[in-house]
Amino acid sequence: MKTFLSLCLIFVLCANGQIRFEEHSLPFVLKNGATGRFYLPELMPGGVGVIDYDGDGCMDVYFANGAELPSMRKTGKDYWNRLYHNDCHGKFTDVTEKAGVAGEGYSIAVAVADYDHDGKPDIFVAGLNRNLLYHNRGDGTFEERAVPAGLMPKQNKPWSISAGFFDMDNDGWPDLFISNYVQWNPETEPKCGTAEQRFYCHPGLYKGQASQLFRNNHDGTFSDVSAESGIAGQIGKGMGVAFADFNGDGLTDIFVANDSMRNFLYENLGNGKFREMGLEYGASLSDDGRAIASMGVDFRDYDNDGKPDLIVTGMINDSYLLFHNIGQPVFFEDKTAQAGLAAATRNLTGWGCGFADFDNDGWKDLFFANAHFPQFGRLSGGASPLNNSVFRNLGNGRFQDVSSTAHLGGAGYNRGAVFADFDGDGLVDVIVSRIDEPARFYKNVTPGAGKSITFQEPLGTEIRVELPDGRTLSNHSSTSVGYASSSEALVRFGLGRFAEPKSVQVRRPGQGWQPLTVKAGPR
Amino acid sequence: MFAGLATMAGAQSQRLPEPIAQAMQLARQGQYQEAERLLKQFAEQNPQDFQAQRALGELYYRFGYYAAAEPVLERAFALEPRDRRSRILSAVCLFKIGDVEHAAQATRKLLAETPPPNDIDLSLTYAQYLYENHDLNGALALAKATVAFAPQHPIAFFWLARILQARGDTKEATRAAEESVELAPSLPYARNLLVRLYRLQGRAEDAEREAQWLKDFEAQKANQ
User: Fold this and answer.
1) Which of A235, A289, A343 sits opposite B98 (nearest CB)?
2) ipTM of the complex
3) A217-226: long-range contacts, CB 8 A cutoff, minimum separation 24
4) Number of Cβ pairs < 8 A linking chain A and chain B
5) Which residue of A235, A282, A337 is in closest CB contact with B131?
6) B199, A330: Cβ pair inside 8 Å?
7) Predicted TM-score of the model (pTM)
8) Do B6 and B98 belong to one domain?
C-alpha cells in the first residue's frame, strides 16, 4: 500500500488561545447567474477544492463556479471554474486556461482524489446539469473523462450539491458519493413572495432526489451502485456530505446533510450495502425534534475520544448542530447547547464548516462560512451578508466564539470553505468562496501556536497520536468537508507544547491498529 | 416551536382596526408577506398606535423573525407600558436573537411579578436558556412549574423530558416524553427523544416504532 508520512514540526511558543488570521483576497469571484428571477440554484454555488496538482508539495486551490441561468451554460469567462497554483507561500496564480479545467455547465461541488492510482490527484466537479472528471495528466494539464468513466449520465442528471471520495470497501481505491438536491426545472420554477417582493422558494416546494454511489472499478471507470447499495432507496434533499467510521467497525460510513428534512446517516454494512440509520442513531434531527435546513457538515472527533462527531450548519433560528458520538447504543447526542453553540449560532445561516485545530493545541476548533439568504436579512432585522466565524475548542466539551478577535474581515455571501496549510508554516489556513466578491484567503497567524504533525494516508485511515503527557489525539483521513468542498488530503494534529508525539498508532482500511514510526524533524 | 404562540393582538377587547383584522386573517391563511405589507403600512401611518405596533411585532414573532419583532414590540410597550404581552414577547425575542443577558434580565423581572405571567413561551424559553447554561436544576424547576400551570401542554412535557434526560433520569424523562406524545400524538418532537430514551433502556422495538413514525410523518409532509 502506498503510504508515506510527511512531518512538519514548527518550533514556536506554546498555544495561547488567540486564534488569529490575516485576511487576503483571491482573484476568484463566484458568480451564481442571478438575474432577479429567483431561480433556486442561484443560492447554491459553490464549492472549493484543495489539490496539489503539480506535486510540488504545496496546496493549490480549485473553485467551482455557476453559469448563466436559465441556460445553465458558462457563457463567459466570469463563469469559469478556476484553478490557482500556489507558490508555497500563499501567492496564487490563475492556471485555469493552461490546465484546461474551466468546466461546463452550472458547477457546484468539488471533490479531489487520485481515483486511478497514478500518483496524481484528480478533480471531480458536480453541479446542476453537468458532472466533470478532470484526470490529471501530470504535466499541468487535465483531461475531462466523466462520460467514459461512467460519471455523467446520458439523461436525467440529478442536481448535485456535494460530492466526496471515500473508500467504501477498503480496497484502497477511492469510490465516489454524490449528494443530490431537488428536482428542478427553470420552466416550472414556482414563484414565491409577493409581486413586489419575490423570494427564493422554500425547498419544501420541490421534490427531493436520491443520492448516488459509484464504486471504483480500478481501471479508470466507476460503476453506479446506488440501487444495490441501498443509497438510492432514500429520497433526500442532500447538501453537504462527510465520511467517517462512526461505529469503529473498520468501515467508512456516510453522513448527508439534508435541507429542511431529516439528515441521513448511512451505516456501511460491509457487503457493498448501506442502511440509513440517522434517526435510530440520533443524528437526523436536532434535540428538539426538528429537521433543520442542514447545509454543511464535517465528521471528525472534536473531543479526542476516538469516536468521530458531527457539526452541521443550518439556517437562522436553527442553531448549528453538534452531534457528539458516545458510541453504542445511542451513538449521537445533540450537544449543541452544552457546547455553547446554540445561542451563539442561532442568529446565523451557515454553509461551509469544518473542524480544524487552528492553534495547534490538540483540540479541533470550528470554522463557519456564513451568509443569510438574500432578502432574508431584511426580515430578520439585519443584513443578509454575514461575517464568518471561528470557535475555539476549550478542551472541555465547550467552544468559545473568538470571531471578533480572529480578524476575519467583513461580511459577505460566504459559501464553500476549505482547510489546508497553504503557506507551509504548520498552521491551518482557510479559503472561502464568496458570491459576487473575491474569495477570501484567511492566512493563519495565530501567535504562540503549537507545533503540528501531518500524515498522508489512504482515505479512511484512522490515526491516534499519543502526546508525552499521556493525552491521545484522534483524527482520520477524509477530504470531503463542509459545503460542496474538499480539503487537504492530510491527517493533521496539533501537538500543543510538545515537539513530537510519544507514539502514533494507525489503522489503515481493512487492517488492524499498528504502531507507526515517526521520523521527526523540523521542516 | 413552543406552540401556544400568541393569537395576534390577542387580549385586546376593543374592536380592531380594519387593516389589523385583515392582516390577521391573511396570516391565519399563511399569507405572511401580504399580512406583513398591510401591517407595516398601517404601523408606519400610525406610529403612535399601540395596537398597530403590537400586531406587527406579533406577526414577526409568530413567523420567527425575532430580530425584526423585538424593536417593534419595544415600541408597543413604550406606547402602552401596562401591556405585559409586549414585554413577554420582547423578552422571548431577545433570547432568540442571542441577546441573552438582556433577555434573562427581562425574564427574571417578569417571573418575579405577581401574579406570575404563566406564559408558556416565556417559561420554556427561559428554561431553555437555563438548560443551555448548565443550570439543570433551575431549568427543571421551571419546566415543572410550566407543567403545573399548563398540564395539557405537550411542549411543556417535552421540555420536562429533555431536561430530565440531560440530568440522567431516563425513567422519568421517558414518562414525560410519553405524556407529551399522548397529549399531541401528531407532534414529532418528543418522539425523537423517545427513540434515544428507548434505546438507552434496550427497548429496541419501541425505539424502532418511534423512528418509523418519524419517517412516515416526514413522508406524509413531503406528499402534502
Assistant:
1) A343
2) 0.88
3) A218/A117, A218/A171, A218/A173, A220/A115, A220/A116, A220/A135, A220/A145, A220/A148, A220/A149, A221/A148, A221/A149, A221/A150, A222/A115, A222/A149, A222/A150, A222/A151, A222/A175, A222/A176, A223/A150, A224/A150, A225/A272
4) 100
5) A337
6) yes
7) 0.93
8) yes
